[in-house]
Amino acid sequence: MTDKYAVIGNPIKHSKSPFIHAEFAKQSQLDIEYTAIEVPVDSLASSLQQLRDILKLKGINITVPFKEQAWALADSLSDRAQRAGAINTVIFENDGTMHGDNTDGIGLCRDLENHHISLKGKRILLIGAGGAARGVVAPLMTYQPAELFVANRTASKASQLADLFSDLGVIKGGGFTDVSGHFDIIINATAASLQGEVPDLPDSIFTSQSCCYDMMYAERDTAFIKWAKQHKVSQTIDGLGMLVEQAAEAFYLWRQIRPDTQAVLQQLRENMKSG
């Protein structure tokens, strides 16, 4: 019997998740159907019920704009999801309850590892203080960086986020004008780069040894990646690998199998190049 899964969001038609999970299922020789379902923005609770009770899904991934809302509706949460304040993965348990998890942070950290980026003892700049940023703070801090600075256009949001995780290590927050010194790793957790915008930060944040990571991705370099390259940093990475790695962690939660992510990432890149 085919086990059914889906990704929900609004809009959702451009999602790469069905392709990724179809590849994981092929590798694992599992009979799985994974679809993309657009859910009306004002009816998440009833939609979740239908997905579980009528469509009989085993689990779902959740994307924009439902991650925070779904977190509030879950019957139980993993520790990392509890701290993230958002979920991107749901397991529909046999007793009908909904367990929420967040694999975004581990997806980012695994992709950094795949690129041989060490976080221990490093200064990290995290740009943005929304849901995407909040989901990655705790996983980043498990690698024991020297300092994590959260920078946001609205300084108070960054300070609040830093305070929320202050028990995990040296985490500071502030506005763009509060950023000083250079950073080993600079991570963009805002969607601004997809609109062609870059943050108003001083050039001094970059060195020739800096690694710049954009959690967004596009067919061509994002505005953030272009900006980093102009400053001759040592490495620039987009968020496509993070997308595949967070999907792999979700697949593991559902099936207890770890798929080969690099083969799928390579295929995705080729697909994007060929349009």
Secondary structure elements and pairings:
Blueprint (H helix, E strand, L loop, with lengths): L2 E7 L7 H12 L3 E7 L5 H10 L5 E4 L4 H7 L2 E2 L1 H6 L4 E4 L5 E4 L2 H11 L8 E5 L3 H11 L5 E5 L3 H10 L6 E4 L10 E4 L22 E4 L8 H8 L4 E3 L2 H16 L5 H13 L2
Parallel strand pairs: 1-2, 1-3, 4-6, 7-8, 7-10, 8-9, 10-11, 11-12
Antiparallel strand pairs: 3-5, 5-6
Helix pairs in contact: 1-9, 1-10, 5-6, 5-9, 9-10
How does the helix and strand content classify structurally? Answer: alpha/beta
> Which second-level CATH architecture of the largest domain applies?
3-Layer(aba) Sandwich
- Inertia-based shape: globular
Euclidean distance between termini CA atoms: 34 Å
Helix content: 25-40%
> Mean pLDDT, nearest integer?
96
Strand order of the largest sheet: 2-1-3-5-6-4
CATH superfamily of the largest domain: NAD(P)-binding Rossmann-like Domain
Radius of gyration, rounded?
19 Å
The CATH topology of the largest domain comes to Rossmann fold
Biggest β-sheet description: 6 strands, mixed
Number of structural units classed as domains? 2
> What's the CATH first level of the largest domain?
Alpha Beta
Strand portion, in percent?
15-25%
Low-confidence stretches: none
Number of helices: 10
Number of strands: 12
